[in-house]
Amino acid sequence: MLRLTGTDPASGRTLRVTVHSGRISAIEPLPVATDAILSAGLIDLQLNGYGGHDVNATGSTADTVADLARALWVRGVTTFCPTLITAPPAAILAGLRTIRAARDADPLLAHAIPSVHVEGPHLSTADGARGAHDPAWIRPADTAEYDSWQRASDGLVGIVTVAPESPGALNYLRHVAASGAVPAIGHSAATPEQVRDAVDAGARLSTHLGNGVPQQLPRHPNLLWEQLADDRLTAGLIADGHHLPAATLRSMARAKGFGRTVLVSDAVALAGAAPGEYHTPVGGAVTLHPDGRLTLAGSDLLAGAARALPECVGYAAGPGGYGLAEALRSATARPAALLGLPDRGVLRVGAIADLAVFTDPTLATAAATVVGGKLVYVNGSAPFDVDPADDARDR
Ligand SMILES: [Zn+2]
């Protein structure tokens, strides 16, 4: 048995949550105040890497995936979709097999990684829209390739991002939807009509809306308004404070409705590193600034996202206009619902015990993290509240 205490931002009350046999067995209000924030563990639907661990790197292994998960647990992220980007067919298959092997080796990893997000390779080749995806490996939508991913990973692909204008995209979106995965659209220069057709074909998620679009668009109509207006689409938003200016994030969230947004980090492996100069295989020389902005060296051009999801939640809560409770929902219950995982992402008796306690409302530092009922991280220096009478530390 394990007990965690902290303030629940949704109710403003201090709660004590008891964990038993992997589930939340009790939730009790306590008549005390605390700065610590108690939440369901955060769920990141789009993440390439963190803490130096990169699922897209050549030579990544099952240990890379396991190390990545542990690095995220330190931040209070309990569930994530490792995101494989545009690459040669064999490289995507290798990435999927690696993640599958990591899950097969550890039931806790299998729990923490319910599915993989494949972002690409059926994207726009236009500059701006394609972002950093290698145009040499962008190719038309291909259901046979999708089927090969599912075979290689034992059905692990849960989100696929495709450009609506990719040749064959509509048939592809229908195929992905019929298989049970979430069809997403992004890295696109589509017309509004192509966006509508894609949603009619089953698209449910806008991948990092507002990023991966052409630098110049007609003021209206365009693919941004179309996606904002269509309630069938949930908007994924990178709330790192750099990919979307505060007013853009706030306006998009209001236009969609906070309830139709999910926050993602889209973090790269350098996220979590100390500020400084680095060299990356894709970006070359890059600078990680103290405020978390990652740019090409000597330029202001973004070279990826470098903030963990809890920092994005903190940014959305403040400058993004969400408030903390709403921002947390968009990083817990909402992504869980999109993935079809109603038993996680919520503080509810009977739900799976994926929990995070943060030292304060900025969520910058996790005090404790529980995954599947197991205490996987404790910040020894944090003023925090885990009942030590537990045997859950042994994994
Ligand atoms: Zn992207």
CATH superfamily of the largest domain, called what?
Metal-dependent hydrolases
Terminal Cα span: 14 Å
Largest sheet, spatial ordering of strands:
5-8-9-10-11-12-13-14
Q: Class by helix and strand content? A: alpha/beta
Q: What is the helix content? A: 25-40%
- State the domain count: 2
CATH topology of the largest domain: TIM Barrel
Cα-atom radius of gyration: 20 Å
Beta-strand percent range: 25-35%
- What is the name of the CATH class of the largest domain? Alpha Beta
Average pLDDT, all residues: 95
Q: Which cofactor or ligand species appear? A: zinc ion
Largest beta-sheet characterization: 8 strands, parallel
Count of helices?
11
Low-confidence stretches: 389-395
CATH architecture of the largest domain: Alpha-Beta Barrel
From the spread of the alpha carbons, the general shape counts as: globular
**Count of DSSP strands:** 21
Describe this structure in words.
The protein has 395 residues and is α/β, with parallel strands linked by helices. The protein has helices at residues 62-73, 89-105, 107-112, 143-153, 169-179, 192-200, 223-229, 246-256, 309-317, 324-329, 333-338, and strands at 2-8, 13-20, 23-30, 37-40, 42-47, 49-50, 53-54, 77-85, 116-119, 157-162, 182-185, 205-206, 234-238, 261-264, 276-280, 284-288, 293-296, 302-305, 355-358, 366-371, 374-378. Strand 19 and strand 20 (366-371) form a beta hairpin. Helix 2 packs parallel to helix 4 (143-153). The protein starts with a strand and ends in a 17-residue tail after the last strand. Zinc ion binds next to loops.
